């Protein structure tokens, strides 16, 4: 067992460090929600003179990446007490957590950065963006009443299993496959949220939105539609709050919000914001099960620079009849070279290899770069969850 892993009897120390490090106030709900995460995570900590000096969560989850399920550990609450900061404690725990992930056959890791530069040194890279749209109540578009279907409004604690299945069926771009405990954790954490459910005339759930309000703003947290009818029903539901709230905000996991579909695109204040980072922990597993976009590829040698020794190799990649053949090719001349961070961007579809080569982040044979780029998905990933 890793010497940095904390046990159940050290929860209070970890929770106290969290409250102090992030300037949070203790409450019954906060403690309960934090304990839920603690009980389902690998919890790392370093003791310093009898006190917990640094800590972090490594949360075992699973993600769906274009139809392929991968184990993913979310890193959260990376912290150090100020009197112990600057001595590499958090960095030591990050490296230990990554080593344990590999040992436990975890392929990927996500985190929300306080500093992109800090986490890049551990192999993480920007992979997820959000698009935020804000519209004043006086600028909301006109939506006709739907002639079919209906909307049901419920408290977040009452969301049905069919909503959870609808989310799961539409989560295929790198988002979390929410396990029961994760759903329960989210609902407890956001107990003040509400949900609106869109049904067709046959009482089949065709869409939903999860929302909350703060001050005089209506916030849409999550919105899934199966067809135009659900979009019409739920959009009309939102607009019917026009007299209650001054502004409406939707933070979408889709970095391309498609503002052109609005009647007046100028009515919306749109901005794309960086959201979370990703890290390939086990490159061999990620690539061998990857949803490749071509059926054949002549052998390419690519050298990956990584602080994780099991990824830091020259690799030989061939694709025959849709089957990936990947092997260690150390000692062979590489057709191209790149870092694990750059490869993460390309494999996640965040930016293709050709573009990355234009910025000098991939070096080598431009033809080989072009061929390898076609192997990877081109759609940007989407992630709603936060940890």
TrEMBL record:
Keywords tagged on the record: Acyltransferase, Transferase
Enzyme Commission number(s) of this protein: 2.3.1.-
Superkingdom: Bacteria
Domain Eis-like acetyltransferase, residue spans: 174-280
Sample GO molecular function, one term: aminoglycoside N-acetyltransferase activity
Domain Enhanced intracellular survival protein: 284-382
Any Pfam family matching the protein: Acetyltransf_9
InterPro entries named in the record: Acetyltransf_17 (IPR041380), Acetyltransferase_Eis (IPR051554), Acyl_CoA_acyltransferase (IPR016181), Eis_dom (IPR025559), SCP2_sterol-bd_dom_sf (IPR036527)
Top class in the EC scheme: transferase
GO terms of biological process kind: aminoglycoside antibiotic catabolic process
Protein known as: GNAT family N-acetyltransferase
Source species: Candidatus Companilactobacillus pullicola
Organism ancestry: Bacteria, Bacillati, Bacillota, Bacilli, Lactobacillales
């Amino acid at each position: 067992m890793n010497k940095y892993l904390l046990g159940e009897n050290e929860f209070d120390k970890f929770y106290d460090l969290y409250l102090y490090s992030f300037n949070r106030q203790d409450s019954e709900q906060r403690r309960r929600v934090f304990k839920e995460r603690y009980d389902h995570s690998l919890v790392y900590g370093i003791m310093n003179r009898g006190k917990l000096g640094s800590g972090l969560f490594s949360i075992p989850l699973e993600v769906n990446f274009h139809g392929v399920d991968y184990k993913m550990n979310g890193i959260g609450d990376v912290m150090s007490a100020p009197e112990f900061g600057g001595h590499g404690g958090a960095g030591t725990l990050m490296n230990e957590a990554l080593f344990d992930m590999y040992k436990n056959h975890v392929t990927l890791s996500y985190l929300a950065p306080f500093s992109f530069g800090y986490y890049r040194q551990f192999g993480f890279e920007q992979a997820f963006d959000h698009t935020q749209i804000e519209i004043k109540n006086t600028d909301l578009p006109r939506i006709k009443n739907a002639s079919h279907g209906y909307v049901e409004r419920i408290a977040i604690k009452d969301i049905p299993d069919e909503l959870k299945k609808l989310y799961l069926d539409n989560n295929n771009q790198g988002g979390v496959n929410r396990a029961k405990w994760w759903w329960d954790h989210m609902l407890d954490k956001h107990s003040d949220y509400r949900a609106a459910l869109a049904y067709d005339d046959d009482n089949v759930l065709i869409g939903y939105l999860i929302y909350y309000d703060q001050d005089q703003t209506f916030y849409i947290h999550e919105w899934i539609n199966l067809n135009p009818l659900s979009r019409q029903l739920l959009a009309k539901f939102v607009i019917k709050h026009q007299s209650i709230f001054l502004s409406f905000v939707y933070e979408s996991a889709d970095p391309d919000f498609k503002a052109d579909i609005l009647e007046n695109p100028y009515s919306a204040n749109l901005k794309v914001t960086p959201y979370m980072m990703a890290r390939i922990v086990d490159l061999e597993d990620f690539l061998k099960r990857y949803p490749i976009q071509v059926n054949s590829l002549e052998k390419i040698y690519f050298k990956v620079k990584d602080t994780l020794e099991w990824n830091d190799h020259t690799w030989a990649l061939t694709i025959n009849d849709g089957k990936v053949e990947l092997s260690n090719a150390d000692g062979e001349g590489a057709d191209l070279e790149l870092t694990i961070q750059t490869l993460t961007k390309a494999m996640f579809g965040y930016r293709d290899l050709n573009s990355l080569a234009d910025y000098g982040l991939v070096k080598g044979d431009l033809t080989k770069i072009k061929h390898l780029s076609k192997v990877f998905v081109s759609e940007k990933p989407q992630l709603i969850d936060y940890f």
